[in-house]
Amino acid sequence: MPDIETDQSDSTNTPLYLKIAHKLERQIISGERAVGSLLPPEAELAAQLGISRHTIRQAIAQLRQRGMLAARKGVGTRVESARPQWRERFRDNNRGDLFEFASETEMFISLKDRVEIRGKLATEIGCRPGKTLLYMEGPRHFINEAAPFCWNEVYLDPIAEPVIRDMDVQRSSLFHLIEAHTGERIVDIQQDIRAVPISDEICSKLGRPNGTIGLRITRRYVSSGGRLMEYAVQTSPAESFAYRTHIQAT
Q1: Could you tell me where the beta strands, DSSP code E, fall in 60-167?
Q2: How far apart (Å, rounded) are the C-alpha atoms in residues 129 and 208?
Q3: CA–CA distances in Å: residue 137 to residues 49, 59, 107, 201
Q4: Domains, the chain, ranges and CATH?
Q5: Secondary structure (3-state) at 56
Q6: What counts of helices (H) and strands (E) characterise the chain?
Q7: What's the rounded Cα separation, in Å, for the pair 161 and 8?
Q8: pLDDT < 70 positions in the chain
Q9: Model-level pTM greater than 0.90?
């Protein structure tokens, strides 16, 4: 088995353990690492890659969460499935989860524009009527998966224009890029999840039958100065979504 090299197309903002996880995932999906086979021991795999055992342990943990790898005591880490359990990828409990989620997906931008926000949309977004925002939309895919799992719409403060000017595919979290560009930290992310009938237009774009029921997730990203930097809308068919959280007793 050849050494794993990090994909040069990955965002430089993507943590190393996620790059390694993505590479392992691609190898499993392609059959290079067959279902039923064992990964080399952590120390051996880390040495092959020139990384720490901690990093390879984090990468393996990612694929275990997706159901692609399983640890067997006394046996090792086994390739369990060539299909990630993508519904379990929705966690979004904190900034790190959102960053990780964006690193594992790709939004193919089909439209980019400037729009004047009025009426109900202004109320929903929480901006003054008549304000002009940047807008882009497109399907979002998990990396290496042909079918989109949701439709994304994003409204951005015009200050973010240099961030998206030459962007055709979004492969990292916008709010992180906006922070890097403006120097303002996003301190408040307000998330709302609602069950909705998906519009016929979006059903068509996602290749789903009219009348499909789904979930509409909206997120407002507010900076330390109280400025709304991003308003994102994610529309997912119901079967593409599962929400998981972990609550510890105190």
Answers
A1: 69-72, 76-79, 105-108, 111-117, 131-142, 150-156
A2: 33
A3: 37, 30, 8, 13
A4: 16-84 (1.10.10.10), 87-240 (3.40.1410.10)
A5: helix
A6: 8, 10
A7: 25
A8: 1-14, 83-97, 99-100, 241-250
A9: no
